[in-house]
């Protein structure tokens, strides 16, 4: 087990802790006596897990610790952290009507299912699927994180619908680009 893989496993361990602390915060909000230290703890855990994503990749490259298991676990940890964060920002009560709309998480999950289904189908047809990250996917992730952070940081001056709309645009745009990439990989008949 490499040190980079240990860091990735720590990230996996932080995800349920983040969700639990955030849920505890939501319960205090529901009880009309929010404990803000819980919100800040949840946010700190989330940021720590996110920063460790960059660190595990750097350690793997810098100390030649790249492995097949690390290459498989890292994107799973990324997606699990992002999805957990989106679920927390959608379903945990952060204040009066202060959450992401339900339709947004449905859109994000639908996009990811479409991409995973397309990859599985192309793998079935071609035996391999060369996946190259697209700029729209990277911006999609960043805008989703901004929308999520908007909720957790409680930037109340601007309604969370605005960063959600921005994230929606890039979620749809990236889905379109990945769909186009998939079409180009279909076998020619």
Question: How are the SSEs placed, and which strands pair?
Answer:
Layout: H1 3-30, H2 36-62, H3 68-91, H4 102-126, H5 135-153, H6 161-184
Helix pairs in contact: 1-2, 1-3, 2-3, 3-4, 3-5, 4-6, 5-6
Structure description:
- Helices cover 78% and strands 0% of the residues.
- The protein is mainly alpha-helical and 189 residues long.
- It folds into two domains: 1-78; 100-189, no CATH class.
What is the approximate shape? globular
Give the count of helical stretches: 6
Amino- and carboxy-terminal Cα gap: 45 Å
Structural class: mainly alpha
Mean pLDDT: 90
Helix content: over 70%
Strand content: under 5%
The total count of strands amounts to 0
- Largest beta-sheet characterization: none
Rg estimate, integer Å: 18 Å
Unreliable stretches (pLDDT < 50, length at least 5) are: none
How many domains, in number, for the residues? Answer: 2
Could you give the order of the helices and strands?
HHHHHH
Tag the structure with descriptive keywords.
189 residues, mainly alpha, 2 domains, 0% strand, globular
């Amino acid at each position: 087990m490499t040190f980079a893989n240990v860091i990735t496993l720590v990230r996996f361990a932080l995800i349920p802790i983040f969700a639990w602390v955030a849920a505890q915060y939501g319960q205090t909000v529901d009880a009309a006596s929010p404990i803000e230290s819980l919100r800040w703890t949840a946010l700190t855990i989330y940021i720590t897990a996110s920063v460790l994503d960059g660190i595990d990749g750097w350690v793997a490259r810098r100390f030649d610790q790249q492995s097949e298991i690390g290459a498989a676990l890292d994107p799973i940890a990324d997606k699990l952290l992002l999805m957990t964060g989106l679920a927390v920002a959608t379903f945990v009560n952060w204040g009066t009507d202060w959450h992401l709309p339900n339709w947004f998480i449905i859109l994000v999950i639908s996009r990811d299912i479409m991409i995973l289904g397309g990859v599985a189908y192309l793998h079935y047809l071609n035996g391999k699927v060369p996946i190259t990250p697209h700029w729209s996917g990277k911006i999609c992730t960043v805008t989703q994180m901004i929308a999520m952070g908007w909720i957790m940081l409680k930037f109340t001056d601007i309604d969370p619908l605005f960063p959600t709309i921005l994230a929606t645009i890039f979620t749809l745009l990236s889905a379109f680009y990945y769909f186009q990439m998939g079409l180009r990989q279909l076998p020619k008949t």
